Amino acid sequence: MFFILPNPQSIADYVSARLVDLISTKPQAVLGLATGSTMEPVYDRLTAQVTLEDIDVSQLITFNLDEYIGLGADHPQSYHYYMSEHLFNRLAFARHKTFLPDGLCVDLQEQCELYSRKIAEAGGIDLQLLGIGGNGHIGFNEPGTSFQSRTHVVDLSAQTRLDNGRFFASMDEVPTQAITLGLQDIIEAKQIILVATGNNKAQVMADLYYSAIDENMPASIIKQHNNAMIIVDEAAAKLLPSEACKPLIATV
Ligand code: F6R
Prior knowledge:
The chain is an alpha/beta fold. It has a single domain (about 1-245), classed as Rossmann fold. The protein contains seven helices and eleven strands. The strands form two sheets. Strands 5-3-2-6-9-10-1-11 form an eight-stranded parallel β-sheet, sandwiched between helices. A three-stranded antiparallel β-sheet has the order 4-8-7, with helices on one face. The relative contact order is 0.19. It binds fructose -6-phosphate.
């Protein structure tokens, strides 16, 4: 379940190759996408590879994990904006097939129900990409979130606001709530790849490795998935026992 590659770039090469394999065999695949610093090299590499190999992405359907409540698509810290900048505007995605929760929606409850339903109607997620927060969150499912949860509104924890505060001018500007795909939605994906890179993910990787499948460690839910990988770089693996991680050979 835990795999290791040397650095963020080699992980980006591997994950991009896996995505391109999937898109080549299933051009209309449904991708579950994450935002955050961890995904930036992945989307850079995917953009380069898709462009170089002239891969058709126009039939893909994508669902992002989450969005801040109160930020519109034109706010530079919104996840809509992030996805446009890092992926959607760089390749020929069909924008009517790229879905994110709407952070400005008035009827949040209705939107949450619609989002999970839309994923089911699309046939479910073929491949879900995940990063992980310092407290073990995936999407914005904070510790204590029910493993049965569907798309829902969440109050962001103090740690998550602090972690993400680096992207905002001041802590006052960091939203206090978000909409996130639930843990049940995530675990229903056919394949899952969770990526953790850098020294600041070493502690949470150790916490995840030693954790039982427990709602206090949201990412531990993926231990019960039969097609899930946790890919770490050497920095994020530094508190793991050496036998914990299988080495991966990058395929590109
Ligand atoms: C973002 C998301 C979050 C991030 C996590 C790690 O869409 O779902 O769970 O993956 O907070 O963020 P970075 O990669 O910035 O450390």
